[in-house]
Model the fold of this input.
Amino acid sequence: MEGLELTAFEIISAVGTARSSYIEAIQKAKAGDFDGAKALITEGDDMFVQGHHAHAKLLQHEAEHGQGSAVSLIILHAEDQLMSAEGFKTIALEFIDLYEKLAKK
Done:
């Protein structure tokens, strides 16, 4: 495996870990561990940035070499996972906020 495939797997791995951190953050918040939840959001953000940087490499490659003849399914999957992780972060932050408000009542 090399080139674009390897970059796609870098994205999938990093943002998959980020998404898992965001989901775990919701579980921590549900249990009342808001510091733990926020720490997991930060960990997820660090992994998401790694995935985002790998994605930027793909975009840079296309800008330098032109569009390829076909889009690979693995690249599509990587981009789907990237967007999914971003959505999970938004949901996780909303749940954490909600659980904090409920805990204060």
Summary: The radius of gyration is 16 Å. The mean pLDDT is 91. DSSP finds three helices and no strands in the chain.
